[in-house]
Amino acid sequence: MATKAKIAILGASGYTGSELVRLLLRHPRVEIVLMTADRKAGQPMAEVFPQFAPFALPDLVSIDSIDWKTAAVDLVFCALPHGTTQTVIASIMKARADIKIVDLSADFRLTNPADYARWYGHEHHALDVQQEAVYGLPELHRAAIKTSRLVANPGCYPTCSILPLAPLLKKKAIETDNIVVDAKSGVSGAGRAAKEGSLYCEVTEGIHAYGVAGHRHSSELDQELSLIAGKPVIATFTPHLMPMSRGMLATTYVTAKRGRTAADLHGIIAQAYAREPFVHVLPLGQTPQTRHVRGSNLIIIGLVQDRVPNRVIVVSAIDNLVKGASGQAVENMNLVLGYPETLGLEQIALFP
Amino acid sequence: MATKAKIAILGASGYTGSELVRLLLRHPRVEIVLMTADRKAGQPMAEVFPQFAPFALPDLVSIDSIDWKTAAVDLVFCALPHGTTQTVIASIMKARADIKIVDLSADFRLTNPADYARWYGHEHHALDVQQEAVYGLPELHRAAIKTSRLVANPGCYPTCSILPLAPLLKKKAIETDNIVVDAKSGVSGAGRAAKEGSLYCEVTEGIHAYGVAGHRHSSELDQELSLIAGKPVIATFTPHLMPMSRGMLATTYVTAKRGRTAADLHGIIAQAYAREPFVHVLPLGQTPQTRHVRGSNLIIIGLVQDRVPNRVIVVSAIDNLVKGASGQAVENMNLVLGYPETLGLEQIALFP
Amino acid sequence: MATKAKIAILGASGYTGSELVRLLLRHPRVEIVLMTADRKAGQPMAEVFPQFAPFALPDLVSIDSIDWKTAAVDLVFCALPHGTTQTVIASIMKARADIKIVDLSADFRLTNPADYARWYGHEHHALDVQQEAVYGLPELHRAAIKTSRLVANPGCYPTCSILPLAPLLKKKAIETDNIVVDAKSGVSGAGRAAKEGSLYCEVTEGIHAYGVAGHRHSSELDQELSLIAGKPVIATFTPHLMPMSRGMLATTYVTAKRGRTAADLHGIIAQAYAREPFVHVLPLGQTPQTRHVRGSNLIIIGLVQDRVPNRVIVVSAIDNLVKGASGQAVENMNLVLGYPETLGLEQIALFP
Amino acid sequence: MATKAKIAILGASGYTGSELVRLLLRHPRVEIVLMTADRKAGQPMAEVFPQFAPFALPDLVSIDSIDWKTAAVDLVFCALPHGTTQTVIASIMKARADIKIVDLSADFRLTNPADYARWYGHEHHALDVQQEAVYGLPELHRAAIKTSRLVANPGCYPTCSILPLAPLLKKKAIETDNIVVDAKSGVSGAGRAAKEGSLYCEVTEGIHAYGVAGHRHSSELDQELSLIAGKPVIATFTPHLMPMSRGMLATTYVTAKRGRTAADLHGIIAQAYAREPFVHVLPLGQTPQTRHVRGSNLIIIGLVQDRVPNRVIVVSAIDNLVKGASGQAVENMNLVLGYPETLGLEQIALFP
């Protein structure tokens, strides 16, 4: 029997943390040996997330209690808040060269320090470490991820938006100055922090836009779309909060280059992802529902020709906690550890 | 004490029908004297909608049982399905010149018969009557509504989309060839018909686009926007179904004419609606939630300058059953009957 | 035109506070002159509850900023947290004999100081004031409320449970030692405080019991049921939290005294409430839905004969924020001020 | 590599059908070879349930098109409506002695033909076959299931209610004449049929009791509880419909025999299920949430001592589509086929 990699989860008391636990408990090649949650240190996981009561798991500890030099850990998932992450990861990497890290925060996603400072309001505290980070979108950066020590797991909005746009920009099939991404997110994206805006009564039975023209994930979108297009791209991006725990839908409006049809664009995307295990492209004219990826690591993409000539409507759906966070993190772990990319990620969507 | 107008509601067993009852029961100048529901004829309203059990209401009857020549009715609300409406209304208008009609179906909204035939799949059966119809958006057509015998109450999507766009097009402040309306609707818009797609399990905790590039309300949008702009306008329009009973949000992306700022556009809209009782314009940079109009006849509009130069994001919110249907119908009734426009429509949003 | 009473709302930034504002803004005989919210003092109400943006309202102030000796206020609604309420109300009553108070907290509901201390964990700090308080369930204590200076507005669970049980206990029609109340509540009952347990993701699509065998509202139930029965009654009471903003359903299991049928019990309840404006009793065999009272001040009660001989199932439904809190508070205000009891409370349920 | 059993699913277009597909697609020892859905015969499963689009599955066929004598099928899941099931299963069993059947309908659950006739309104049409059926609650009838040709998979309500009560009745620890089961169910229990009562707008944000004192599952409860108690038991049983797709909570009120404490009862249940893979008993005083079993085959049980002496409150939670239907069906399949009972049923609850 193959040995199991020893896994630590920093920040296990949040929703991305618990989603990592859900996935890793059934992953045949890993073992969760360490879980931290500073404010809940000392508690068993079953108190924090009772769905894990039937399972054997280590109790939560504080980060400070860990001696990284001696910890029997092969890979660390870091699900800590933005900002604090930098220092923690820098100290781990300094202590041990052999530990791999998949970071679910935004701290190492932006390659340009000025972008980080502008969008996150302070200088980056671990610029040297950031040089090593790879943006963990396997469909775009698989080779680099495999050999990386530090994977910056993408945000949910960028994952959902970049994947359908990337092949179109790569093939120069669309105009770069008229991209509109209208995105709708489930509430778990806001985390488990007790905030008024995440209360049931503030979210159920309604919808609203937020962070209009100013959401931090715009910076990731800009970076990756520009990288692919080979020139600066600024996409219009409007996130909306809606009453669902999980799920994300991006309705993206693009202008096909003159002479390009929706069928052309569909063909480009379908071909680009023909061998991708976690990308499913619907027949032209069909669009996905978020329900059909709930709990699964899939992204489903659909395209429709608009009534306005040259305009094409692209709809993409993910589970924000899986392909948009912890599932993709496990996918990156698989790549880093040399496992089959789909291992432990075969869950089928829970519908209804 | 003022006399009360005698009101008939055709199709009272659907959601727009019950919403009319809710509003009219508390309207000081009307009396519901007749309610029809063919499949539920003979039943008391309390069986069909138990929330009305405490109130005195006539039992439901079939339409065929009514002799319009002698019926003691001043105004008819028609909440019947598209298509059957035409014949019914034509026969009422033929039988009686003194009965006013507010029609909540789509049958008399399109002025061009070819448009009707194209979007609804058959020739219009009452073209002569249609000549009399006025498109019942009071903010645009108030004077004509007041003297009309037949008001074609607008669809929910057009109401929510046209109101923010109309002043901008009138003032030629935006480009007419790059309008994108991304709309999100509550489920009650699909009515009370027992359809798989409206089942709880098919709608809760998720979102999907539908009727992409082909929703019938596009025809109303085209008609009214073109009328205002003075030239053909085709807006990109994508409706989404989401888990809320009531409510509609339209996120509209427009390109300001060169030299125009978001502040200019905001000023145009704010000024246009400064005296409108049912339009509330938020300060520049703020956007509305559907929850804040739940159960009320208001539309709330907000504008934000995008990061993309010249692009402005406009968000508008209504309750699809009130300003998007029955509330606006009562507003039209008030105009037609010479009542104050806000009479019986002062409900404040139910939040939470 | 009649003069309007001047109303203050202490704690206007919570859900019961905003519900008071919704109701009072449309009440013809009152004027909101003062609203407090300590942490949000200085803010306009439109920032705290944007649904009120279209309405003229005083800005929020801190309680300490009010000089009660000179304040032009006729009646105070107190929607403050349990505990702090006592001191505030005692100081108002000391400063001014002419101000009436309707208190929505639990502070003055329990007549026995020992009960208060046991259930709330500390001695009561205003026992003299408590002597004046009347338990504000109009159907039971109307006469006393009318002449009271201080009305202790009942909790939502007691309101929903006591009203169906009171006539049965009064007529000695049921056993007093086998009453089971299984109650289901909407989330707004937990208030607007940012607590993990009230987050959307923790509440949607599920249900759980809480405070099993130990919920504080048990003390109100015990007190009122014992008072009516003329002997000590302890009801089994299990509250459940479920995914709805508003609404409360109590399914109550009672044992009819030997010889009594469900029809007898139904008759007793129907007769007891025949003239009550806010109690609607369904025909025997029918039971209510919470949706049918959403936003209204009604309680609907239904009874069914169980298969187990002598057992009768009683189901009652209220909107926890209206009849269960702010609506009943306005009802009490009407009684205290000598207004018709239903004034401003004629809202019809919002369904769907 | 072990051979895979060939599985047919009759009625694959409903929610229990799709849930079987979800589970079986990831079961290592089975292969879905046949799926029927009469009204959707000829369609690919991806049209009926788009979440299966990425998977290879046989197209849907009509039942009549199958020749059972020659069909290469080892086991049939029957997820057909009550009533029609009898004839279909009788014909399969007549055609082939070697095919095993797990029936998810109610047709073979009641051992007494008179009970069936009374609760289902017509004589049973396959009484001979019924003699062979075993009530498929593995925790109670495991041995008989293993050797059965026909397993009658229990209803969701009985599963959720019987499991906590069985050990208490077996040990004669509770009174048999004062059992009250207050149950709350998700909407998927009503199936995918397009019924007004299952529409989103009729279910969201509210709760109501239904089938009060007359739900068909009462007959299963009576049968099994009486069997265990060794004397006739009639439990009071009130089902409620609430806004969740999946999940079921039963709050059960029992009277401990004189001298028995809640701790005694807890000990009895905990000991009875100590080795059961799908039963998790919480520490005394804790109660479960439905969310913590969403998508999993677990039942979680908790007990609390009530304030009323001798009364104990028992709360149990299942996913109605898994342990309450398709998961338990797969569990029964594993028993019938001689596989490990937990094979393919290791899914961890999806929360949030």
Descriptive notes:
Chains A, B, C, D: Its EC number is 1.2.1.38. Chains A, B, C, D: Catalyzes the NADPH-dependent reduction of N-acetyl-5-glutamyl phosphate to yield N-acetyl-L-glutamate 5-semialdehyde. Chains A, B, C, D: Pathway: Amino-acid biosynthesis; L-arginine biosynthesis; N(2)-acetyl-L-ornithine from L-glutamate: step 3/4. Four copies of one chain form a homotetramer. The first copy, chain A, is of the alpha/beta class and 352 residues long. The first copy, chain A, has two domains: 5-132, NAD(P)-binding Rossmann-like Domain (Rossmann fold, 3-Layer(aba) Sandwich); 157-320, 2-Layer Sandwich (Dihydrodipicolinate Reductase, domain 2), CATH 3.30.360. Chain A has eleven helices and 14 strands. Chain A has a seven-stranded parallel sheet with strand order 3-2-1-4-5-7-6, with helices on both faces. In chain A, α1 (15-25) links the parallel β1 (5-10) and β2 (30-36). The radius of gyration of chain A is 20 Å and the shape is globular. Chains in contact: A-B, A-C, A-D, B-C, B-D, C-D.
> Which structural class do you get from the secondary structure elements of chain A?
alpha/beta
Largest sheet of chain A: 7 strands, parallel
> What series of H and E elements makes up the topology of chain A?
EHEHEEHEHHEHEHEHEHEEHEEEH
**pLDDT averaged over residues of chain A:** 97
Gross CATH architecture of the largest domain in chain A:
2-Layer Sandwich
Radius of gyration of chain A: 20 Å
**Percent range of helical residues of chain A:** 25-40%
